[in-house]
Amino acid sequence: MKKEFDVYEYVSEKATPQVLANHGDEMQKFAAYCDQAKKALDDAEKEESKANGQESLILERQRNAILGLPKEVRFYKQQIKDIIKEMGIGAEWYPHWYDSMEDAIYNEILGFAGLAPWIENRKPEYQYSSSAKMIGGRIYFMIGGKLELQPQSMTSERRAQLRAALLLDDPRKRLNEVYHEVYLQDGSRVTIYNEGLAKRGQDCIVFRKFVVQNYSFEMQAEKHTIPAELVPVFKAMVKVGYNVAFVGPVRSAKTTFLTTWQSYEDDSLEGVQVESDPEIPLHEIMPNAPIMQFVPNEDDLRSVIKRIMRSDADYIIMAEARDGVALHTAVKAANKGTRRVKMTFHTTDVIDFAYDVAEEIINSYPNMDLGSYIIKTAKSFDYILQFAQLEKNKSEKRLIGMWEMRYDLTARTIHMLQICKYDYDTDAWTFAFDIGEDKRQIGHIVSPKAFAEMENILRDLSQKYPMQGNYKYVPFCQALLRG
After folding, report:
1. Do 167 and 157 contact (CB within 8 A), yes or no?
2. Are strands 315-318 and 271-274 parallel, antiparallel or unpaired?
3. Residues 6 or more apart whose Cβ sits within 8 Å of residue 428
4. HSE-up of 68 (CA within 13 Å, CB side)?
5. What are phi and psi of 153, to 5 degrees?
6. For residues 303 and 423, what is the distance between their CA atoms, to the nearest angstrom?
7. How far apart are CA 274 and CA 296, in angstroms?
8. Which domains does the chain have, with CATH numbers?
């Protein structure tokens, strides 16, 4: 039996102590208004269902309203506007995180409730906020790189309604399953952790909004994400067409920098972009470039690898290489001679990059040889750019290392050379000059002018801001290759 809407439970769960202390009476009155409006809508829809027997269409309309589809939102807001007028409460108090009484009641009974301001970017700081999180009834918004507890919260009944609406579109998903991942109309990812996995009463819903920004290298330098001296170097590297991996932990600006890098690519070249999430809108960033964008799930990716490889693309972008299937696609493309391959990869240990990638591939393809894929990975990527967010201010991102991965075919040796290093104490970068022969050959063949500029600047930087200590490393997996 469905639990009745309880005003006092609603108030106790809805308002934080601060809100109750300041507006306790108003919150109770507002909760009562929501209760009355909800009852009026329910009664109207019961009558509608009796009249035409279209209960499934009403449920679909409710779901679409919760997901923010304009037609359904307009329909219910008009209904609520009429109810507010009939009740005579248009000038009454409502919680400050909403825009109007109509907006407040709509979101409390049909929309995203206290999450609505973040989802709809109602403040400038929400526009570039990448995530929001609900733990139990508590709501947090990511602001300036930190999760901030909001004054609004959500009842257990309202959370259950929201979860049910989010899952209606896929009959394969069951409400009693402990984990779900769904997508909103704008491509935002919603991850649901139900009780059974989450602690009782602490079910979680995580919203990930894709706010990848299309910066220029100059803008990245202004934000101090990269040293300004490397701007012409990066532009030259794009022209040469090196294969590049952008690595680091979550929220370290990997995808943003990949997007920046890609925006300098020759838009006459044919590209293929593969993502696990619809995160990078290349059709908007490079509207004239012939780039095919695919968003397959893991099972689909296995089956479409051959089709991707047959697409005659000049380059491949693996926007987020989460697993061995995605990594195998990128490595296979590079080993077939494809240049300008780009990907992001979650790791903090760049020295063992080749091993980490190969291990993920072997986990997905157990019949393949680990040593062979270590070598293939080492041959696949020319440079690795390592990013991190600063602990003292997580909204600040830094390029903390630029590495050349070098494989000696004759000696079967791998070296990792750090040619740019970030110093946390001085908030500045130092450099070492060392360019492998294979990188020189690529540069001389593709764009001698761009390579010469890159070489000269890196040499000058190593003299002006010399790196102290060792910059050349042998990864531990080298011992596996000797075996």
Report:
1. no
2. parallel
3. 227, 422, 465
4. 13
5. -145, -175
6. 44
7. 8
8. 1-110 (no CATH), 112-210 (3.30.450.370), 217-482 (3.40.50.300)
The continuous run of DSSP H or E covering 237 comes out as: helix 231-240
* Distance of alpha carbon 377 from alpha carbon 322, whole angstroms: 16
Asked if residue 160 lies in contact with residue 244, where contact means CB atoms within 8 angstroms, the answer is no
| Stated pTM of the model | 0.76
For the beta carbon of residue 313, count every other beta carbon within 10 angstroms. 20
Cα angle for residues 286, 243, 281 (degrees, 5° grid): 25
Say what angle helices 55-66 and 156-167 make with each other, to 10 degrees.
110
Residues whose CB falls within 8 Å of the CB of residue 120, separated by 6 or more in sequence, listed in order: 68
Structure tokens at 129: 């906020």
Q: Can you count the helices (H) and strands (E) in the chain?
A: 19, 16
Backbone angles phi, psi at 246, to 5 degrees: -110, 115
In one-letter notation, the amino acid at residue 257 is F
Phi and psi at 76, nearest 5°, equal -75, -35
**DSSP structure class, residue 15:** B
The predicted-structure confidence for 134-190, as pLDDT tens digits, reads as follows: 999 999 998 877 889 998 988 888 888 888 878 866 545 555 677 888 877 777 788
Which 3 state secondary structure label does DSSP give 146? strand
pLDDT in tens, 11-64: 444 444 455 445 568 888 998 999 999 999 999 988 888 888 777 788 888 878
Residue 217: φ, ψ to 5°: -60, -35
What lies within 8 Å, CB to CB, of 406 at 6+ separation is 378, 414, 415, 416, 417, 436, 438
Q: Residue 173 corresponds to which amino acid? A: K
